[in-house]
Amino acid sequence: MDIAGVNHHDSGEDESESQLFHLFPEIWEDIIVPKLPPTDFQSFINSCPKWRGMFKDIIAGRLLPLVLEILSKHWTVSKESLLAWRRVNRGGKSAIDKILEEFLAPKKYFNDLCTEHHEWWPNVVDENQPLRKAIERLKRCHAYKNPYEVQKFMHFAKTTGGGNLVLPKYAALSFLNFPWENGRNLNTIQFDFLAQFGGGLSSVSFRLDQATWSLLLTALFHLRNLKVLQLWGSMNLNPAQTPPKMVDAYQKFQLTSLELLDVEDLVEENIFRDDPERDGVFAVILRHCGPQLTRLICSDRLFENPKNAEALSTAGIRFVKLNGIDEKLLARLSSLEELHLENELLDRLDDFLPAINKFSSTLTHFQLSVPLGYHEYLWRSEAPDSWYPKMTHFSAYIYHSNLCWFWPFLQKKMINLTQLNLHESVFIGQRVNVEKLSKGFEMCPRLQKILVFWNVGNRENPMAGRMEMYRDGKIKRHTYKRLPLFSNN
C-alpha cells in the first residue's frame, strides 16, 4: 500500500481516503502499526496529518526508542526513569535492556580495564555522567565477599520466589571465593547457589586463594552461559594434589559461550606449572575455550608451561592485553585488532617492535603502557618499514608525548589516526601542556580528539579526571572522585 500517496485533492478520492481511515482501524492498530519499526512509524505519521491524528495516543511510546539516547544523557536521568521507559512498550524494553547488557558485555569489561583505565569502576563517582550512576544502580552485579552473604541471598530467594527465583540473563557475580573456616568446608553454600543460579550468570570473578582444582572445575560446570571469566588471587597447589581421575571427571564442562578470559592477576607462579606429562586443570580450561574466545587478558607467565600454550585456541582472539612480552603467545596470534602491551621493565626494543609490526595490517587500536625513553628507533628510516593503515586509536602514557619519537611515529606510521588517549602514569606525574598537545592536530590530519586521563589508574588518589580536546579547539574537563573499594577479605 502506498501510504504516502493517500492524500489527494480529488473529491472522489477524498471519499475513498475517508473510508480507508475508518473501515479497518483494528487492522492498523493491531496488525500493521505494531510491526512497524520506530523509524518507519515516524515516516508513516509524517506522511499525512490524518495519520498523526489517528495515532496521536501512541506516538510518544512508539517513538521512544529513537530518543532514548538523547534522554539518557540528560542530567535528570535516574534508575526510576530508566525503569519507566522500559515499561512503555516492547521497543522501550528492548532499548533499555540493550543498554544494561552492554555494561556487562565482554567489550565493556575489556575497554574499562584497558582503554578507559578503570574510569568506569564501581567506586568512581562522576556527576557529569548521570546515566552511569543510574546504570550502576540497575546493573545486575552481585558481589559476595563471604559465604554468609550467599546464604542470605539464598534465603531471600527461597522466601520471596518459592525457591524458583532465577537471576536474569546477563547477571554478574564477583569476588566469589572458596572459603574454609576453622577446618570446616563452607563451599556447599556456594555450589548450591551456582547449581540454582549459574545458568543466569554471564560474568564471574573467582578469587582462588583457598581453592582446589576440583572446586574450581565443579563451579565452572554450572556456568553454561558464561561470557566473562576472571580468575585472580594466589593458589599454593602441588600438581600432585590433583589426581588425574579428578581432572578427567570434570572434562565434560563446556565454556561454549566464553568470550573473555582474564587471568592477569593470578599471582602464584606454580599455577602455570602443572605436571608436564599431562594437562593440568588450567590447560583443561583452555581446551574448553573455543573460537568464540575473542578477548584475552594475561601475563607472560601464562605460557611458561608449554601445555597451556598448546591448549589455547587462538583462532578467534582479536583483543589482547599482555603484561610482558611473550614471544610464544605473539607467534601464535594473528589478525589482532587491539593490542595492549604492558611492561614496566621493558629494556629491549627488539622485542617491542616485532610485537606490533606483525599485526600492522590489522590493528585498529594499540595501547602502549611501556616506559620507553628518548628512543628514535621507532620512527627513523632504518626501522622496519611497517605502517598501520587501519589504526584509528592509539593510547600511551602522557609523558610519551614529550619524547622525540612520539609525534613523528604517529605522523609517519598512523596516518588514519582519529583518537589519541594519553594516561598519566602512576609513577610519573606530568602537567598537561594544552598548547603543545594541540599541535598534534596539525601533525595528524585525521586526528579528531585527544583524551587525557589523570590519576585514573592510581587507586590511592581520591580524585581523578579526564580532559577532552577537539580539532575545532573545544576543550572539556571532567573531574570525579573515587570511593574506597570494599574489602576483598
From TrEMBL:
Which SUPFAM superfamilies does the record associate with it? RNI-like
Against InterPro entries, the record matches this protein to: LRR_dom_sf (IPR032675)
Q: What is the lineage of its organism?
A: Eukaryota, Metazoa, Ecdysozoa, Arthropoda, Hexapoda
Organism expressing this protein natively: Orchesella cincta (Springtail)
- Protein's name according to its UniProt entry: Uncharacterized protein
Q: Which Gene3D superfamilies match?
A: Ribonuclease Inhibitor (3.80.10.10)
